[in-house]
Amino acid sequence: MQVLVIGGAGYIGSHVVRRLLDAGHKVHVLDNMYSGREENLFPEAGFTRGDILEYGPLATLMQQGWDAVVHLAAFKAAGESMVKPEKYSVNNICGTVNILNAMSESDVRRFVFSSSAAVYGEPEYLPVDEEHPARPENYYGFTKLEIERILSWYDKLRGIRFAALRYFNAAGYDPEGRVRGLERNPANLLPVIMEVALGTRERLDIFGDDYDTPDGTGIRDYVHVSDLADAHLQAMDYVSAQDRSLVVNLGSESGISVKEMVETARRVTGEKISAHVTDRRPGDPAKLVASSSRAHELLGWRAERSDVETLVRTSWEVYKGH
Ligand code: UD1
């Protein structure tokens, strides 16, 4: 298939591009390089530097007749979204509407969308399945949920079949070391730990150790980015073969605490990794773990590289080279 990957130079996007190329698809990347990295561009894929907020060039690119569009171009810092909602409205919501409008104009009917576990908000029960109420607690999560709602209308009215992939916590790097670009100014746990191990950041702030969890620190469902990349391929195939849309969680179904991640990183890297406990970060639930049984049933997908050791080791392989 000919696939347009929007945000394909980013952290998750570049892993998705790699996976699509490995599977023999023709890939073209559209990225504004705001958080994308040059070194994440693969020579086998085409590349256009451009922004989803510029409708004209986007619509022209869309006319090239893509079999599917994978869209990962979004802002994703939950905390920032609460103080800069306008930025998230414009890029995440308006940007996606532009893509969908360009798709319907050019008769492109398959769409794979990066959604998030942030659509659920504070969990009412665990593990969180797709039937769990969606009440986002941050504006970022709201933008993802709103786009899912728009998608279901474009499905009905324009026949655009979509896969909304609700990622839990993406982490790790390509185990074969083919993705080299580091995220700029990361706020997520594992890249922050890696920067401390590397010495480019002084220490890790552990946001609270008085949660109702075995070691008191927050527990999340970390899913390896290459597992996520597999799911994009499987979701694209599902949407094409079944001519039907789907919404699925992508998680490993197991929880890792902040302390467990830090201790594993100390062991794997051999570095001290200075860490101290600070206040809780507002809006952080104690524990978030996915049920991914729907992804397993519909896509045959399961996380296979998402154990704490592999997450840390594959990240360190890339970080230590910088
Ligand atoms: C959040 C979003 C998630 C989104 C992701 C992308 C929610 C509930 N989750 O995940 O949907 O896709 O951001 O950025 O909105 N921690 C520290 N110190 C740090 C950083 C993190 O202790 O410096 C802890 C957090 O308190 C948390 C865990 O590590 O317990 C993971 O945090 P983080 O990596 O920021 O991801 P989430 O907030 O879970």
CATH topology of the largest domain: Rossmann fold
The first-to-last residue Cα distance is 35 Å
Rounded to the nearest angstrom, the radius of gyration is 19 Å
Helix content bin = 25-40%
Uncertain ranges = none
The name of the CATH architecture of the largest domain is: 3-Layer(aba) Sandwich
CATH superfamily of the largest domain: NAD(P)-binding Rossmann-like Domain
Total E-strand runs: 13
What's the number of structural domains? 2
Q: SSE string, helix = H, strand = E?
A: EHEEHEHHEHEEHEEEHEEHEHH
What's the CATH C level of the largest domain? Alpha Beta
Shape: globular
Mean pLDDT: 97
Strand content: 15-25%
Numbering strands along the chain, what is their spatial order in the largest sheet? 3-2-1-4-5-6-11
How many distinct helices?
10
- SS content category: alpha/beta
Note down, in words, how this protein is organized.
The protein has 322 residues and is of the alpha/beta class. It folds into two domains: 198 residues, NAD(P)-binding Rossmann-like Domain (Rossmann fold, 3-Layer(aba) Sandwich); 100 residues, UDP-galactose 4-epimerase, domain 1. It is 39% helix and 17% strand. The strands form four sheets. It has a seven-stranded parallel beta sheet with strand order 3-2-1-4-5-6-11, with helices on both faces. Helix 1 links the parallel strand 1 and strand 2. Helix 2 runs parallel beside helix 4 and helix 6 crosses helix 10. The site of uridine-diphosphate-N-acetylglucosamine (UD1) has 23 residues, from helix 6 and strand 8.
